[in-house]
Design goal:
The chain is of the alpha/beta class. It has 2 domains: 30-114, Leucine Dehydrogenase, chain A, domain 1 (Rossmann fold); 140-273, Rossmann fold (3-Layer(aba) Sandwich). Helix content is 39%, strand content 16%. The protein has 10 helices and 11 strands. The protein has helices at 8-28, 44-60, 75-86, 106-112, 124-131, 140-151, 171-178, 199-203, 255-258, 273-292, and strands at 4-5, 34-40, 63-69, 93-96, 160-164, 188-192, 208-211, 229-232, 236-239, 247-250, 264-265. The strands form 3 sheets. The protein has a 6-stranded parallel β-sheet. A 3-stranded parallel β-sheet has the order 3-2-4, sandwiched between helices. A two-stranded antiparallel sheet has the order 9-10. Helix 6 packs across helix 7 and helix 6 (140-151) packs across helix 10 (273-292). The longest helix has 21 residues, at 8-28.
Length: 294
């Protein structure tokens, strides 16, 4: 068996096409959705993510603002930027790129963002709405995975889903979304993590396995059952002397081995990653629509 690829680039392009119509409708009302990104410090991966977000805004015709500050920025200075963006009518939503340099308090920053502008979906108000199944801005990566399932008709209803990883960004919200009583949910969810005993026994139960633990190639073919759907959220750098950069990106899944056993599988890169940015654009447009009704 060779697994069918779940192509995040294809689905992300489809999402952008659908967003185009909603953006044009907003523009006819005199509204241009706007996204601001705040980057503190000089972390190369964060800088790359921010460039990708700005480029996505440009392609869709959204207003984009990138605010860069040195790692010496104080907490009060950062909160002043958040306050300005909260009250800037050009900005439908914004995010502060994580991780933040120490000693900045990331949680305090999240709490300072207005929930209606929280396009990352991390504010406790949006997290609470997600948990009780009410409309709100959803975390981009888990919501993007749901959209991948929809596109490939991989209905999780009645299936056993195992999520490896319990982060606030992916693992926990992914579990919350999949256990809801609605379409593209209704799954039986198990959350495993670094302290789970006999991890392979747990993952072999999964009809759908979602790996988001940040450990390169942790999931091996022996850890999945035949025909499982495997979704790899991990992005890890491993040394590669043959690469011009000296490294290459791999996921949390042994792609070569597991693709011979799974029915569907996401590649790294090109699987979940493109969906994260697409869903950020989606949240920005949703935020603009919501604000236009006030």
């Amino acid at each position: 068996m060779t697994a069918q690829l779940i192509d995040g680039k294809v689905v992300a392009n489809r999402m952008r096409e659908q967003l185009g119509e909603r953006i044009e409708a907003l523009k006819k009302m005199g509204i241009i959705p706007g996204l601001a990104t705040v980057l503190v410090g000089d972390d190369p991966a964060s800088a790359s993510y921010v460039r990708g977000k700005a480029k996505a805004c440009e392609k869709l015709g959204l207003y984009s603002e990138v605010i860069t500050r040195p790692a010496t920025l104080t907490q009060d200075e950062l909160l002043a930027i958040v306050d300005r963006l909260n009250n800037d009518l050009r900005i439908s939503g914004f995010l502060v790129q994580s991780p933040l340099p120490r000693p900045l308090d990331e949680q305090a920053v999240v709490l300072a963002i207005k929930p209606e502008k929280d396009v990352d979906g991390f504010h406790p108000v949006n997290v609470g709405l997600m948990l009780i199944g009410r409309p709100g801005l959803l975390p981009c990566t888990p919501h993007g995975i749901i959209k991948l399932m929809e596109y490939y008709n991989l209905d999780p209803s009645g299936k056993e889903v195992v999520i490896v990883g319990r982060s606030n960004i992916v693992g926990k919200p992914m579990a919350a979304l999949l256990m809801q009583k609605r379409k593209w949910a209704d799954a039986t969810v198990t959350v495993a993590h670094s302290r789970t005993g006999n991890l392979g026994v747990v993952t072999r139960r999964a009809d759908i396995l979602i790996a988001a633990i940040g450990h390169p190639r942790l999931i091996t073919p022996e850890m999945i059952k035949d025909g499982a759907v495997v979704i790899d959220v991990g992005v890890n750098r491993v040394d590669d002397c043959a690469s011009e950069k000296g490294y290459r990106l791999v996921g949390d899944v042994d792609f070569e081995g597991c693709s011979q056993k799974a029915s569907y599988i996401t590649p790294v890169p090109g699987g979940v990653g493109p969906m994260t940015i697409a869903m950020l654009m989606y949240n920005t447009v949703i935020a603009a629509e919501n604000q236009s009704r006030k």
